[in-house]
Structure formats: C-alpha cells, structure tokens
Design goal:
The protein has 422 residues and is of the alpha/beta class. It folds into two domains: 194 residues, FAD/NAD(P)-binding domain (3-Layer(bba) Sandwich), CATH 3.50.50.60; 216 residues, no CATH class. The protein is built from eight helices and 23 strands. Strands 1, 2, 3, 4, 5, 6 and 23 form a seven-stranded mixed sheet that branches. Helix 1 packs parallel to helix 8.
Length: 422
C-alpha cells in the first residue's frame, strides 16, 4: 500500500516504534512539552513481546519492570511474569502516559528534506523536525545460509515464529543455537515429550542467582552505577569491538520461578547435543567435532567477564554480599556426540533456527549506518542532525535495550530535542 497523496502532516518529532523504547521516549518528550507522534507497524501494543512463544516468561525479574515514571512497586520483586502479562504491562503504561500512538502504520522511508525529515508510511507522509528510531533490537530474524540446503519436507521455523510444540509435525526436532531462545525452546519441547537435538553455540551459561541476588541485579547495578566506582566494563565505550554489541546474553530462563539453563543437564535429560552446524547435503547434517571444548567454553564464559565485573563492583561499592559460590564440577559428556546427523534416520521433521536477529534500518535514505546497520551516534544522537536512536543493544551500555535501560537514554535524547527546539 503506497502513501496517500496530499500535503504531509507536520509534527515536531516522530518516534518510529511503540515498544518499550518508544513508550519511554514518549514519556520524556511529554515531560519536556515536545509535540510528538509514535508510529507503530503492529495493530496492537506490546512490542516484540508479541513475537514470543506461548510458554515464554520474561528473563529479567519483576524488579526490572520499570519504565520512566513507573518504578516497580509490586509484592514479588524476584518473580517473573509470562508473555501475556508483559504485553498488558506495556499497554497499561501507554494508557497511563497517554502516548500518542498511531497503530498499523509502517514506515517505509525516512529522508532528510532541508531542515526537516520526510517520513513515508503505509498511511501517508509526515514532515518532522526530528525522528527517533525506536524500532527495537529484534528487527530481522537471522537464518544461516545452510538452511537452503535442508530438504523441503523438513519444516523450518525461526524462533521468531515458534509458538508451541503443537505447531510442529510429529517427530524429532533440531534446535540450532543455544542463546536464551534456543535453551528455553528446548526446555519447552522437552516438557511436551518431544525428542530434541541441539546444536550448541557459544553463548555463556550463568547462575540465576549469584552472591545472594538474582544475577540480573548485579548486571543492572554494574550498568547503572559501576562507573561511579570505576567499573566501566559494561559501558559501550569500553567494548573491544563494534561486533561485540551483538554478543549473546547469558543462558537464563524466567520459567518455573527463574532458573539457569545448563547444557549438560539438558543432555542428561535426553537432548542429543551436537557441535556447530557447518554444512548440509542430501539430508545429512555435519557439525563441528568439538563438543567437549564447546561445553567447557560455554561454562567458563560467566567467570571470564560478568562474574569479574560483579565481584569488582561489590568490592568497590563496599557491599556486604555472600562470598562467591563455585559451581560444582561437571564433566558429563554424551556417550557419542557425533559430528553427523542424518535427518531421516533420526526422524527429524522440523528445525528451529534460534540464531538471533540482525538490524534492518533500510528505511533510512541517508548515509548514517555502519557495517552492522547500526546508526553512527553519540549517546543516541546520530551524525544526521535531528535523527536519534534509542533502545538498541549497547547504545550507551549493556542494558540499553532492556526495560530499566531505555529510560535514561530516552531522557537524554528528549533533553537534546527540547534544547534544539529552543
């Protein structure tokens, strides 16, 4: 559907996306008296949480259910809420702040037009002094090239489109990827009695609780207050490379009251573990023959980074916390890992690609993106005057794409917009 002809509608600031980042942006723009409209491509509010599977629970505890003007004040700060409750949380927040949202409006092009922007959408054209990209961190499902070599009779589903085991045909399931989605979907399939094969990635395992707190408590504290004590490891300026912005998060789950996911435990429960999926031909899949080393690296990941930062923060801030707990040694390995899997022999009838997302900012008709399709910016203020970004992974810090992280970034951007208007 092409934009309607006619004179463009004018507004001071357009926010593209009405998920958690867009709503936080709306709160602060309203606070500063900036006229704005949020354009949301979906027909209802709820953001990317609408794309999660039926049994999904948020991976962050309830104490992180915090947006500008609405800190968490419930009775279960260490609990976890299911997908549908999360969607209702955002809808309620949008109503509380009277966010000016226009639904079912997909942006197709953003171009600089003199001192303003022309924004083309499926429901007409807008003219805006400022544009804020709040279109999320989960934009384009990534599927590896090897997917094209899978036999056509095998159902292939990205985790983005997975909802429950019942949507899959009878037979075994191969899950590719062991980030949070891959681990949690594997558990969902196990609970339904499905036979599961799992291609192991390199996302680190982590304890659900560490030194007396949920591990996300320490991650959040290091993000928000670490620099006050010289702990800067979770700030974007201290990343080793731009590619590190897309590193996967620790392997955790909010289901069943919250727990860590241990790949060796999944193996003991019957999941067939494999290395990295390399090639496929005529229904034969070949994996790297490095599963023992891969499992060891996954288990060591927390101790090499997040644990060190949490311990350093606890010491620097003088926090009275229990001593670090050493994980029990675990040398379990499958009797026969195997680097080859014949789909027909294993009765694998479906593959779930839990292989993450990439950024897609092709709507921007201006040279502002780096090699990863990430806007070049400083604290969300891009190189193009009047163009901003919020809610992206590692925009300013590790938690910039999470509920408690979008508020501070949105506040800074709103102040810049309000100051530029003056």
């Amino acid at each position: 559907m092409s934009p309607s002809p006619g004179t463009p509608r004018e507004v001071d600031t357009l926010v593209i996306g009405a998920g958690q980042a867009g709503l936080a942006m709306s709160y602060w723009l309203t606070h500063h008296g900036v006229e704005h409209v949020l354009l949301e491509r979906r027909g209802t509010l709820g953001g990317a949480w609408l794309d999660r599977w039926d049994s999904f629970y948020l991976n962050t505890p309830n104490f992180a259910l915090s947006l500008p003007g609405l800190p968490y004040d419930g009775q279960d700060p260490d609990g976890f809420i299911p997908r549908d409750a999360a969607v209702e949380f955002f809808r309620d927040y949008a109503a509380r702040i009277a966010a000016p949202v226009q639904l079912e409006t997909e942006v197709t092009r953003v171009a600089r037009d003199g001192e303003r922007f022309t924004v083309e959408t499926t429901h007409g054209v807008w003219s805006a002094r400022n544009v804020v990209l709040a279109n999320g961190a989960f934009q384009e499902p990534r599927v590896p090239a090897v997917a094209h070599k899978i036999p056509q009779h095998v159902l292939q589903v990205h985790s983005h489109d997975y909802r429950n085991p019942q949507q899959l045909p009878a037979g075994a399931v191969l899950v590719v990827g062991t980030g949070q989605s891959g681990g949690q979907i594997t558990e969902d399939l196990l609970a339904a009695g499905r036979e599961v094969h799992l291609s192991v990635g390199m996302c680190p395992e982590a304890p659900r609780r560490y030194r007396g707190q949920d591990v996300f408590h320490w991650i959040l504290q290091v993000n928000l207050h670490g620099p006050e004590h010289g702990i800067n490891g979770l700030m974007a300026d201290h990343l080793p490379s731009p590619a590190a912005r897309f590193a996967c998060n620790p392997l955790l789950s909010g289901n069943d009251g919250g727990h860590s996911i241990h790949l060796r435990d999944l193996g003991r429960r019957g999941v067939q573990l494999h290395g990295h999926l390399e090639t496929a031909a005529d229904g034969d899949l070949h994996f790297t023959d490095d599963l023992p080393a891969r499992l060891a690296m996954v288990e060591a990941g927390f101790g090499q980074r997040l644990k060190l930062l949490a311990d350093a923060y606890i010491a620097a801030a003088g926090i009275n916390a229990p001593e670090p707990e050493a994980p029990p040694p675990d040398g379990w390995l499958p009797e026969a890992a195997g680097s080859r899997l014949t789909l027909a022999e294993a009765d694998v009838t479906s593959i779930i690609w839990a292989t993450g997302y990439g950024l897609n900012n092709s709507i921007l008709d201006m040279p502002v993106l780096d090699g990863w399709n990430y806007p070049r910016h400083t604290r969300g203020v891009t190189e193009v005057p009047g163009l901003y970004a919020v809610g992206l992974p590692w925009l300013t810090r590790h938690v910039s794409a999470t509920l408690p992280g979008v508020g501070p970034d949105a506040e800074f951007i709103a102040e810049d917009i309000a100051g530029g208007r003056a």
